[in-house]
Design goal:
heterodimer, A: 420 residues, alpha/beta, seven-stranded mixed beta sheet, five-stranded parallel beta sheet, 9 helices, 28 strands, 21% helix, B: 488 residues, alpha+beta, FAD/NAD(P)-binding domain, D-Amino Acid Oxidase, Chain A, domain 2, Arc Repressor Mutant, subunit A, 3 domains, five-stranded antiparallel beta sheet, 12 helices, globular, binds flavin-adenine dinucleotide
Chain lengths: 420, 488
Amino acid sequence: MKQYDLVIVGGGPAGLAAAVAARDAGIRDILIIERDGRLGGILNQCIHNGFGLHTFQEELTGPEYAHRFIEQVQERGIEYKLNTMVMEIRKDKTVVAMNGDEGMFVIQAKAVILAMGCRERSRGALNLPGYRPAGIYSAGTAQRLVNMEGQMPGKRVVILGSGDIGLIMARRMTLEGAKVEVVAELMPYSGGLKRNIVQCLEDFHIPLKLSHTVVKIEGRKRVEAVTIAKVGPDRRPIPGTEERYECDTLLLSCGLIPENELSKGAGVELSGITGGPVVNDALETSVEGIFACGNVLHVHDLVDFVSGEAAKAGEYAARYIQKGDKREGRSILLRPMEGVRYTVPTFIRPQEMPEEVTVRFRVADVYRDCAVVTYAGDRQISRRRKKILAPGEMEQVVLKKEDLMEEGIEDITIRIEREA
Amino acid sequence: MFDVAIIGAGVTGCAIARELSRYRVKACVIEKEEDVCCGTSKANSAIVHAGFDARPGSLKARFNVEGAKMMEALSRELDFPYKKNGSLVVCTEGQDRGILEELLRQGEENGVEGLRILEQEEVRKLEKNLSEDVICALYASEGAICCPFHLTIALGENAADNGVEFYFDTQVETIKKQEDHYEIHTKAAAGTKGSEIAGKEIRARAVVNAAGVYGDVINNMVSEHKLHITPRRGQYELLDKSTGDHVSHTIFQLPTKMGKGVLVTPTVHGNLLVGPTAEDIEDKEGTDTTAEGLRNLEQSGALSVKDLPLRQVITSFAGLRAHEEGGDFVIGEAEDARRFYNAAGIESPGLSSAPAIGAYLAKEIAKDLALEENPDFVGERKGILHPGDLSMEEQNEWIRKQPAYGRVICRCESVTEGEILDAITRTLGARSLDGVKRRTRAGMGRCQAGFCSPRVMELLEKTAGLSPLEVTKSGGESVIVFGQNKEI
Ligand SMILES: Cc1cc2nc3c(=O)[nH]c(=O)nc-3n(C[C@H](O)[C@H](O)[C@H](O)COP(=O)(O)OP(=O)(O)OC[C@H]3O[C@@H](n4cnc5c(N)ncnc54)[C@H](O)[C@@H]3O)c2cc1C
Ligand SMILES: Cc1cc2nc3c(=O)[nH]c(=O)nc-3n(C[C@H](O)[C@H](O)[C@H](O)COP(=O)(O)OP(=O)(O)OC[C@H]3O[C@@H](n4cnc5c(N)ncnc54)[C@H](O)[C@@H]3O)c2cc1C
């Protein structure tokens, strides 16, 4: 059996940044396993720009952003295997993978980093009623067809869901000559970034209908029309509000689901809210020596945050390989409260944590003139005013070690409070 | 001149074709869709019913019990998934236990073996997730599940390998009775180019009507004994594989005046299936699902099974039962049309009955046309190899021979390129994404083809020689793309 210190599953931005950071922390023996024919993950199909504003202070396209990290991986001589799919990860950190040249093989790792990304919610999972013709695609599939295969999947388009990929595709399809009739969003707010709503819809006069959903899909072989309707507070369609759009395509951008089938197989505990692993301050999952970062951990909005988080995972994995595990000792639960849907991480170990830990979270609704407030037990340790908070944007607070060292802190809570 | 023309390539038509190919015969199957298994045979509960449901003395009872007894051996011969998981009809608090006893009696009269009424405690031991209200159940050890796609495809493939000709994209328009044969007029199905016989006149000494919900239309072209078939829609939800062990038996509800109720069953592939509804509709193509139907399902499923993990739905679909007014199958030569054979009104348990219907009609036709045995008939057929079912050593042996077996195309179901190439190149090979999906499961998993469809398209282009514009989801006008960027 082949041995590696560190095996990284997935060669997207998360896997790449984790590899670079682990190498820089002194780990020599690293293998990245990627099922696609190239490194870079989902960024390879994101040919629009807007990447890297935080990391490189410039606007890059997805492939350009990925390329910077691929270069860093190559400069460091980090080993990677392409066209190779990880089939199984076991609790003992053996990894089973397969490709056409080597067949199926098993690798023993000292630590594993999960960086498998996420998948899109499908029409089936949304349980949309109607026929099942051709012409219904998740926005990411359409993106791949247009950007990677150069093929146009539709001429007249309705989009359900205002996630970022859907917004980006509304613009892309328009630029390629298609007519995007409408974007319907079930929630009373968009799930995408504000800047994408402006640049991808408003600039092209594409209407965004909030609190709307698809109630009917017509066409037996190919989509012929889609009917949308307004929904009430219970998110059920309101009879009489139906609007029918003739179209040949329905794109879905209704959320992303972290791809954790492999993690489950390894016995990793998952969060019911994020769909990603439950991790501690070191981004270590419930299985010792298995770490997670990027979209497999929780769905990010900006790739810059993915890279930042993944670099941490790389460092922590390196520390684990060099120094072993420090799981005993005090561990404080982070509780999302009023308006906060989840936090990553879920546990903080004051003794083990570095001087600062970034906690990322999303809010449950749109909040104006409010504050993000953090408590250690009953004691307020930070308060940050916010003009607006929206579910589409990832938020963060930074926890300081010094605030958490005192004994007897039962939990840390983060909540949204109204500003007087 | 054909000896026999079979109309419809569902499980019934394919079973008849396969059994006929045991004889020296020039036979064809004419199908308006692009592939076998595009009608009701692709959207049903996939249960091989033990046979206690049908009224004793009915054709349904006879062919169900016979067919179910043939199915296991057939699954080995033709290499399709089949599992005898046993079934339970559950009786809940306040329901009439007498109905269970009646079913038991009926089953025994029909010749079903292995029926037994179980009391609450015993039932609970068998299935921990039954509703708390369940007080007793009828257990049928012979109840089984199968893969309806693979069953139908295997029958069709084996028939074709033994010489039966298949014509897809070809719709039968009229049938005229002549002195000693029938004249069949066909046209290319809407949105298709049709097969080489489309638009031409075909002559056949005998005709078999296996046209599913269109069985009445075909029958009424030649017979004065008019049939009337109502499509009775059944909607389903299919749940993720992670839920497949929620129950291990097929769980039926007690039949009531309102119908047979909703069943919950594992599938042979490890998913959980909840359905069907029962709605009479007019449209013979009305396989759409409705918000109301799906909602009813979810409520009704919970009556027999608790904690149904309905959040794990990966897809919903609907199929149409070919319900004939008379309430029974219509099988055999039409009284007033010599050598015109019906296999009509084949609603549930049509899947279970198919092997027996095929054997029976083939024998009748062979006798009638004085067909000789086919000495070259080969009954065995190998299905598509799925390396995932093999040990690591065996897989590696395959990958060494054919690296395509090491390249995963569908990540959710771990389907390799090797399997997809096999599906496209074998007899009656796949021509569409759905064709590949039914043969290999690529695209049938939790992401519902989001990931693999561009990759499968590419393989169809390379291997079946299609242009990107010719690749469809399910034939005809179901194209995936309209052209190159900036071209449209
Ligand atoms: C349409 C779209 C638009 C976006 N726009 C922006 C933007 O404007 N600005 C911005 O900052 N961010 C944007 N993003 C977000 C950014 O692309 C993601 O945050 C980032 O790609 C996530 O990185 P990741 O490595 O976690 O996942 P991914 O990029 O998905 O990488 C995961 C990798 O793991 C591999 N993998 C998975 N399973 C296995 C397995 N079993 N074996 C081997 N390999 C496996 C996959 O093939 C993939 O390469 C956008 C994303 C999309 C989809
Ligand atoms: C909701 C539901 C649940 C069921 N559950 C079960 C079950 O659990 N167990 C069981 O045993 N049975 C079950 N059944 C019944 C079973 O699915 C059917 O009896 C069986 O599939 C019928 O097969 P078929 O070949 O007769 O019809 P089909 O599969 O419909 O095939 C008929 C074919 O004829 C073609 N055709 C029609 N008109 C023409 C024309 N003019 N020219 C050319 N071709 C034509 C059609 O395109 C079609 O492909 C169920 C059915 C439904 C709807």
